[in-house]
Amino acid sequence: MAKNTTITVQQIGSPIRRDKSQRATLIGLGLNKMNKQRELVDTPEVRGMINKVPHLVRVVGE
């Protein structure tokens, strides 16, 4: 991963009836409403959070 690369993540699923850890992961990514998008620095920590909730988020741009 190159220095200062970013990825855009969009929330596509609702956190209703999800585990607390999955809700907390969405909040950690800065997502809390449907279709909200955030541009995040591409780090292993962020990739791990995305991999924890792949059914709730989509990577729009890299």
Automatic annotation (TrEMBL):
One cellular-component annotation, GO: cytosolic large ribosomal subunit
Occurrences of domain Large ribosomal subunit protein uL30-like ferredoxin-like fold (ranges): 8-57
CDD domains in UniProt: Ribosomal_L30 (cd01658)
Gene Ontology molecular function, alphabetical: structural constituent of ribosome
Annotated keywords: Ribonucleoprotein, Ribosomal protein
InterPro entries (UniProt xref): Ribo_uL30_ferredoxin-like_sf, Ribosomal_uL30_bac-type, Ribosomal_uL30_ferredoxin-like
Keyword presence, Transport: no
One Gene Ontology term from the biological process aspect of the record: translation
Gene3D superfamilies: Ribosomal protein L30, ferredoxin-like fold domain (3.30.1390.20)
One Pfam family it belongs to: Ribosomal_L30
SUPFAM superfamilies registered for this protein in UniProt: Ribosomal protein L30p/L7e (SSF55129)
Subunit record text: Part of the 50S ribosomal subunit.
Similarity-based family: Belongs to the universal ribosomal protein uL30 family.
Protein name, per record: Large ribosomal subunit protein uL30
Organism, as annotated: Devosia ginsengisoli
